[in-house]
């Protein structure tokens, strides 16, 4: 049986650490970290994520305000909200929930974000800073996966990491973070021929595809560390299903994240950590 990289247990420890740090920050400086979320449209997955985030923030003493917009709201209204939140010293982090409704230019809205408040780390200015090796908030799911590796003392330097998926929120930043950790990185995508040949070379394999159980045990090098970011709704299954076929992958992997309870819980914990960091920087300034 491989080592199970338990995101539930790890994120619980991180959230407890954050709660203690929030209390200390507020006691010392009077600053209470506040995260604002812009929720445009009625995507049920987005609504669930934002309400989970509100609940977790509340438990850690982080203030949480949600700004809802209908699906047909003009882009200018959302942009005005971003501008207002950028300028509000009581707000430390801003999350623009992805995806924005059809017709809105998501990149243009994200580009308005003050990088100091982009705690979700997916605005182009944060990505550029990450690529340039400058201080920036890192996209929460990739950073959550890196933190999981750190917490389990799994080395990255010198390893061959293969990332399947190249989305802006997941695959690309994950590849850059692994590279920053001195891994040798291969990025695969839908046009990669012979995917299994690539994945079988991975010491660290990251699945960020959005295709249920696409990565099977025969695609995994014996002893590899497998991180499964996927969560997919599958009819007839009670819980979300990862991009990795857990049972067959477990026969090859030395360590693996389950779905649910692996990568998923690390995302919100990272968002909260980033918000706390933004508040600490603001308090110092
Ligand atoms: P996207 O659909 O934006 O990207 C999927 C990527 O997978 C694309 O780069 C695509 O390639 C690639 N891909 C698709 N099919 C194949 C294939 N057959 N072989 C190789 N590569 C393929 O998805 P996201 O990155 O947003 O999400 C990926 C998964 O992670 C989903 O299951 C999603 O639900 C989950 N997720 C989890 C989060 C968490 O908190 N745990 C947060 C966000 C997402 P191409 O670029 O060529 O199209």
What can you see in these coordinates?
By secondary structure, this protein is α/β, with parallel strands linked by helices. The protein has two domains: 30-114, Leucine Dehydrogenase, chain A, domain 1 (Rossmann fold); 140-264, NAD(P)-binding Rossmann-like Domain (Rossmann fold). It is 43% helix and 14% strand. The protein has a six-stranded parallel sheet with strand order 1-9-8-7-5-6, sandwiched between helices. Strand 5, helix 7 (171-180) and strand 6 form a beta-alpha-beta unit. The mean pLDDT is 97. It binds NADPH dihydro-nicotinamide-adenine-dinucleotide phosphate.
Explain the layout of strands and helices:
Blueprint: E1 3-4, H1 7-29, E2 34-40, H2 44-60, E3 63-69, H3 75-87, E4 93-96, H4 106-111, H5 124-131, H6 140-151, E5 160-164, H7 171-180, E6 184-188, H8 195-199, E7 204-207, E8 225-228, H9 246-252, E9 255-256, H10 264-284
Parallel strand pairs: 1-9, 2-3, 2-4, 5-6, 5-7, 7-8, 8-9
Helix pairs in contact: 1-10, 6-7, 6-10
Bound molecules: NADPH dihydro-nicotinamide-adenine-dinucleotide phosphate.
NADPH dihydro-nicotinamide-adenine-dinucleotide phosphate binds next to α10.
